[in-house]
Write a structure and sequence with these properties.
Elements: E1 2-5, E2 16-19, H1 38-42, H2 47-58, E3 66-70, H3 75-86, E4 90-95, H4 100-105, E5 110-113, E6 126-131, H5 138-143, E7 145-153, H6 167-175, E8 182-185, H7 192-203, E9 211-216, H8 220-228, E10 235-239
Parallel strand pairs: 3-4, 3-6, 4-5, 6-7, 7-8, 9-10
Antiparallel strand pairs: 1-2
Helix pairs in contact: 2-3
The structure holds NADP nicotinamide-adenine-dinucleotide phosphate.
Length: about 240
């Protein structure tokens, strides 16, 4: 079987075809939900695992919690908004103007347009903030958290190839014991049990994958260029 390999810190122009072993699905035989296309189904792992685990395992989300999702329009964010809603939270998403309609369509209760309003200055307080954009300081994020609120750090600008991406998680670990709020850096993991949870949410129509673009395999480099601009809407698909 051939796969495309992209070296994250290379250029999309040096994508490689590589022979890989056909994945063994015998331990992982969860069917594609009937209401999804194969392309939609392929967009679920990683982004939806990330959203589910960030909300549930790190964020300890509870029904009625006020949740802020910063960076809500992308692959992880569109799943995070929908999963938080499915888990009974009141969800505010941070979007840009062009995505406000989509924000409502995926069920966000409140939207903040980051091109016009600063979420750190609305005076609102949240039980949980899932920070996917990672574009603000920890101090600014803490300002919108309730006294016992949780900040889950999912993503952010890489700022360098090696130590750069570790800076924020390290800051969070060091700060957490000194403040009343919980600072929780986070790394998603693959989990069959979570795939079952997601399967149920998808099958029930409570979570619907969002995607605005599909590229044929021959244009994979274009797809990665688009992603790296940092403004994808939902998941970007590559089709066979
Ligand atoms: N911790 C983990 O295990 C884990 C797992 C997966 C991904 N990640 C990380 O999570 C981050 C996002 O991943 P993704 O796949 O969701 O990215 P993505 O699909 O490329 O989406 C990025 C989104 O961020 C929005 N955005 C850009 N600037 C923003 C700002 N200033 N404020 C609010 N939203 C902004 C964009 O929306 P607009 O077009 O509206 O600007 C875009 O939709 C990346 O850093 C990735 O590495 C972490």
């Amino acid at each position: 079987m051939k796969a495309i390999r992209y070296y994250r810190y290379g250029s999309p122009d040096v994508l490689e075809y590589q022979d890989i072993d056909m994945p063994d699905v015998s331990d992982n035989d969860i069917p594609v939900p009937a209401i999804l296309t194969f392309e939609q189904a392929a967009s679920v792992p990683v982004a939806a695992f990330t959203a589910l685990q960030a909300l549930r395992d790190k964020g300890h989300i509870q029904p009625g919690h006020k949740v802020l999702v910063n960076g809500a329009a992308g692959g992880v964010g569109t799943f995070a908004v929908q999963i938080a809603k499915a888990l009974g939270a009141e969800v505010t998403g941070v979007f840009s103007t062009r995505n406000l309609e989509m924000a409502r369509s995926i069920g966000a209760d409140h939207v903040i347009d980051y091109t016009r309003e600063d979420f750190a200055r609305t005076g609102q307080h949240y039980d949980l903030m899932v920070d996917i954009a990672g574009d603000r300081t920890l101090r600014e994020c803490r300002r919108v958290l309730a006294a016992k609120g949780v900040l889950v750090g999912v993503g952010g600008p890489d700022k360098g190839h090696w130590i750069g991406p570790l800076r924020r998680p390290v800051q969070m670990v060091l700060l957490s014991p000194m403040v009343s709020q919980t600072m929780a850096p986070f790394l998603a993991r693959q989990s069959r049990d979570d795939l079952v949870v997601l399967h149920e949410l998808l099958e029930a129509g409570k979570v619907i994958p969002v995607s605005d673009r599909a590229y044929p395999l021959s244009e994979a480099a274009e797809a990665i260029r688009y992603l790296e601009e940092g403004h994808a809407r939902g998941k970007t698909l590559i089709t066979a």
